[in-house]
């Protein structure tokens, strides 16, 4: 590196340092602690307690009990601390979460767990999911000001990006897929950073692109472009086709929704393409006519044979359409289940590669309906309300964009209600952010009006 480049890097680093110092200046000890909890939660979900797994080792495919116990303890403690902090200052915000619809969803999940085929597994995983989701929902309330929220979000993003790039350039065997990987050696060369798979790295990088654009829009002209550029470049090298295509498409869709006044037009813009995507994917194995149509398309909406997995999952839904097979308890051991001739490989799948179908399998059709009402339909109404009261327009657009990306990403991958999945965490954060923005004044901070 020549001297001018080194000087420029030094200037940028000092600029970021000044931004953190100025943004956190004036906070008392409790407020600073709240910011630390927010940053810890973001780093725990993005970097994890086990970064850079060695996919060349058999150990990468097994779950280590002690490591999982540490994850449960870490998430549980952080969630408890977050609840205590928020309850002491933001009671109205917490009470706004207690709605009949939210209670129905939680109640149904508890009923589903009682009747689960693997009750112990469902209980254990639900506890982790509850801790992770609680942190995601409360995170918009933890930083005392919107500026400190921005710094927490941008700081955590930069830490992750620096780690990912250092891994790629200094220890590529731990940060990229290689031909020696135990599973999927055909992905050799694709970047995965600190994550265990490029299919996790690519959607996270897409979300960080949106974060960078948001930070730039609110005046962070060093951190914002840095996050957006670093995440965008990394996204390209992951080789994640779905996320790469969705990245700009979803941002364009969100921008169109942002300038549309009518709620009904917003619904059409958001949901009609989403319905079409589900029809072209899962719908193609339900309807021979749709299947014939998809075969005429210039691209393969089944993503190279996922139709076998969807048929297998649909058969599982038909077995228990109401109660489902149990939260997070179906895909652990399906090797003994019957499949269509020639589709036996579907029993080796880890999930159904469609979030909506996977929920129907695990928590039943009533559970899927409740998730759609809470996480698909309600957020758009919340965005409309926030927009009507001109509450933090740039922040509302960030939440809208992340929410929309999650909806469309869910047509090809499974992440909804999935424990410590980083896409689920950021999606739940966005949904919660829209919920709070719709109900409380949020010019400088996401707090109730005093």
Automatic annotation (TrEMBL):
Q: Where in the cell is it found?
A: Membrane
UniProt keywords, alphabetically: Ligase, Membrane, Transmembrane, Transmembrane helix
The GO cellular component terms are: membrane
Pfam families associated with the record: Wzy_C
Q: Which residues cross the membrane?
A: 29-49, 69-88, 94-114, 126-142, 148-171, 207-237, 243-261, 268-290, 359-380, 392-411, 423-440
Instruction: Note whether Amino-acid biosynthesis occurs among the keywords.
Output: no
State the annotated membrane topology for this chain: Multi-pass membrane protein
Q: What are this entry's molecular-function GO terms?
A: ligase activity
Top-rank lineage group of the source organism: Bacteria
What InterPro entries has UniProt attached to this entry? O-antigen_ligase-rel_domated, WaaL-like
> Mainly localized where?
membrane
The O-antigen ligase-related domain sits at 227-372
What PANTHER family does this protein's entry cite? EXOQ-LIKE PROTEIN, TEICHURONIC ACID BIOSYNTHESIS PROTEIN TUAE
Q: What is this protein called?
A: O-antigen ligase family protein
């Amino acid at each position: 590196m020549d001297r001018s480049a080194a000087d420029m890097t030094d200037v940028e680093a000092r600029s970021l340092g000044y931004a953190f110092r100025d943004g956190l200046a004036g906070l008392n000890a409790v407020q600073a602690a709240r910011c630390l909890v927010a940053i810890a939660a973001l780093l725990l979900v993005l970097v994890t307690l086990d970064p850079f797994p060695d996919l060349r080792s058999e150990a990468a495919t097994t779950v280590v009990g002690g490591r999982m116990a540490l994850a449960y303890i870490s998430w549980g403690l952080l969630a408890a601390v977050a609840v205590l902090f928020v309850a002491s200052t933001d009671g109205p915000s917490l009470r706004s979460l207690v709605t009949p619809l939210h209670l129905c969803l939680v109640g149904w999940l508890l009923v589903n767990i009682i009747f689960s085929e693997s009750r112990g597994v469902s209980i254990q995983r639900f506890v982790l999911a509850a801790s992770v989701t609680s942190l995601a929902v409360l995170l918009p309330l933890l930083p005392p000001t919107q500026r400190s929220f921005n710094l927490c979000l941008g700081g955590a993003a930069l830490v992750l990006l620096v780690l990912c790039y250092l891994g790629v350039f200094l220890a590529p065997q731990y940060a990229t897929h290689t031909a020696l990987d135990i599973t999927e050696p055909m992905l050799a060369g694709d970047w995965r950073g600190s994550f265990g798979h490029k299919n996790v790295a690519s959607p996270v990088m897409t979300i960080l692109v949106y974060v960078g654009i948001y930070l730039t829009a609110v005046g962070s002209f060093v951190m914002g472009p840095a996050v957006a550029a670093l995440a965008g470049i990394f996204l390209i090298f992951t080789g994640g086709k779905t996320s790469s295509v969705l990245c700009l498409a979803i941002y364009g869709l969100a921008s169109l929704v942002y300038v549309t006044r009518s709620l009904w037009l917003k619904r059409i813009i958001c949901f009609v393409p989403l319905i079409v995507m589900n029809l072209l994917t899962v719908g193609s194995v339900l309807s021979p006519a749709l299947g014939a149509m998809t075969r005429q398309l210039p691209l393969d909406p089944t993503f190279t044979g996922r139709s076998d997995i969807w048929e297998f999952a649909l058969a599982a839904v038909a077995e228990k359409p109401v109660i489902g097979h149990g939260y997070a308890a179906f895909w652990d051991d399906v090797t003994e289940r019957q499949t269509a001739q020639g589709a036996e490989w579907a029993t080796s799948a880890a999930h159904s590669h469609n979030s909506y179908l996977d929920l129907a399998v695990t928590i039943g059709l009533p559970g899927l309906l409740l998730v759609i009402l809470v996480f698909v339909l309600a957020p758009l109404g919340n965005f409309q309300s926030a927009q009507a009261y001109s509450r933090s327009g740039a922040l509302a657009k960030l939440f809208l964009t992340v929410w929309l990306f999650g909806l469309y990403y869910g047509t090809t991958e499974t992440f909804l209600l999935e424990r410590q999945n980083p896409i689920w965490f950021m999606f739940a954060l966005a949904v919660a952010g829209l919920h709070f923005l719709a109900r409380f004044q949020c010019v400088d901070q996401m707090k109730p009006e005093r």
